[in-house]
Amino acid sequence: MAMLNHLTTACWKKVQNDRLKKQLFFICRALHKSAASDAFGISAAGEGAMPESVISSAAVSEKPRILSLEEMPGPSTLSNLVEFFWRDGFSRIHEIQMEHSKKFGKIFKSRFGPQLVVSVAHRDLVAEVLRAEGVAPQRANMESWKEYRDMRGHSTGLISAEGEDWLKMRSVLRQLVMRPRDVALFSDDVNEVVDDLINRVRILRTQESDGATVLNVNDLFFKYAMEGVAVILYESRLGCLENEIPQETQDYIGALHLMFSSFKTTMYAGAIPKWLRPVFPKPWDEFCCSWDGLFKFSQIHVDKRLSEIKAKVERGEEEIYANLTEMLLAGVDTTSFTLSWASYLLARHPHIQQQIYTEVTNTLGPGAVATADDVSRLPLIRGLVKETLRLFPVLPGNGRITQDDLVVGGYFIPKGTQLALCHYSTSFDEENFHDSLNFQPSRWIRKDSTDRVDNFGSIPFGYGIRSCIGKRIAELEMHLALTRLIQKFHICVSPLTSEVKSKTHGLLCPADPINLQFIDREN
Ligand code: HEM
To answer: What digits encode the pLDDT tens for the residues 187-220?
Structure first.
């Protein structure tokens, strides 16, 4: 768990040395010698309002007329097979989620071969499930991730770890990267990356005949997101936004792209039984090859930093690699897709773009560079990110494996059932969001303290103790980048781009390249 020495160093770089030493000691002791909850006297439940109780089988017995799973509606196995394998349902998971929730209601079951999945498609039921979580919720079956790590002698990181191992890591990490004030310390570093993003926009648009268009903006935002996460996690620059990208960074980008582009095959990597691998070797080989590339890169960058704090590290470098590899993996495409959609929505709604520009200039004054502290005074910038994630939730659905017997929506769900939380369909439910198809960043502005617009209808970072640990990092990167882009440019849709639809490819991403024009504002 010495990764935490590194992260501690990164996050506390601006505090005194003594404090750093104390922190390092604290973390090492906590992670190596005792359970995190003992050491810190906290339970991970502090991250969200997690009630003690779960809906237990005892509670179940008090309620009459509880329906069984057999009685739950849902598509037939055959129609599911046709939908996914014949009609390429894997790239339309979000649409199928909508169709099924309209047809079967708030809760329904589907079978994928031997796997039964219960989909939960109503805000209140999603809330029920997440509020009932125990101390170490499980998202999905991570066997293929674990198998790769065992084979190569790597540890599990935060995404792939479960139970006590996960709880220990999470309890420490959340203190380092979940508190807004700790992440705010990186404002200046992230702003340097934003400077490079703006320069890059200027370079790229000169390469097009109209002198304004940046082709496939996601490519640019991918590099920005990677540089932004790395400046916080590795405390070093990778050169993603330079003209000549260093070879090791290019290799890493290649490995990430392979992981992403082979999403379907890597899904099969987990699904194909081991004994069939000699017959169908490709999914497993590609899966291992991308992870090899990702781990190699983390190793290089962690080693650079580790040598500086080696004396303080007791053991556990492997966990540093595993955690930073998984965090970088989780932090790049998610942020870049959201930035791409946000810019696209701004371009398609010039009057809203103008309103946000007015808010930014009135609040900051002309030409000022925003910091994390300014963001609370820019509610439309925050609303822009929330509204983008409502319309294009990067994770259109999330998973949980129930840790106890539950009753949800009147049905008995036995322990160990795979649940799918249908965030995409709840985001478009009129009951949760009036005029739900329309882009309205202002819907997120609170009129007064009773006017709560945040609800379980849109929880793009998840909720509770297993929610996204990178939320604050992602928000900082997105708020600072979008504020500056709006200050500098009129963002317009290029004539090369017509309506861009979304598709599911592991994450919800643009089905076609988004090409945008960035025209200088006169300021
Ligand atoms: C727009 C940006 C992002 C979105 C929408 C997003 C969304 C999510 C969601 C929905 C989850 C699952 C939560 C759950 O199961 O309840 C998750 C988990 C996670 N995310 Fe993010 N994420 C983003 C950016 C980031 C960044 C920048 C990082 C790292 C710096 C990151 C690191 C992680 C990790 C490590 C987990 C697993 C946490 C655990 O299992 O304990 N994410 N994210």
So the answer is: 999 999 999 999 999 999 999 999 999 999 999 9
Tokens (6 digits) for 232: 């916080």
Encode pLDDT of 38-47 as tens digits.
Answer: 222 222 222 3
Query: Ligand 1 pocket, 426 CB below 6 A?
Result: no
Query: 512: number of CA atoms within 13 Å, CB side?
Result: 8
Kind of pairing between the strands at 115-120 and 418-421: parallel
Output the CA–CA distances (angstroms, integers) from residue 377 to 103, 345, 364, 380, in the order listed.
43, 22, 9, 9
The conformational region for residue 215 under phi > 0 = left, psi -120 to 50 = alpha, else beta, is beta
Closest residue CA from atom 26 of ligand 1:
331
Distance from the alpha carbon of residue 199 to the mean position of ligand 1, in angstroms: 28
Which residues, 6+ apart, have CB-to-CB distance to 148 below 8 Å?
154, 287, 288, 291
Residues (pLDDT < 50) of the chain are 1-60, 309, 311-313, 315
**Do 458 and 432 contact (CB within 8 A), yes or no?**
yes
Distance, CA of 161 to CA of 44 (rounded, Å): 15
Side chain identity at 463, as an amino acid letter?
Answer: Y
Region label for 349, one of left (φ > 0), alpha (ψ between -120 and 50) or beta (otherwise): beta
Nearest C-alpha to atom 30 of ligand 1 is from which residue?
470
Residue 94 DSSP one-character state: H
Condensed to tens digits (0 to 9), the pLDDT of residues 111-148 reads 877 789 999 999 999 999 999 998 899 987 777 778 87
What is the token pair recorded at 295?
């781990």
Strand 516-520 and strand 489-493: the pairing is: antiparallel
Per the listing, tokens 């004994």 go with 275
Q: Which residue among 171, 461, 502 has the greatest number of ligand 1 atoms within 8 angstroms of its CB, and so is best to mutate?
A: 461
The pTM (predicted TM-score) of the whole model is 0.83
ipTM for this prediction: 0.99
Which residues on adjacent β-strands are paired with residue 493?
516
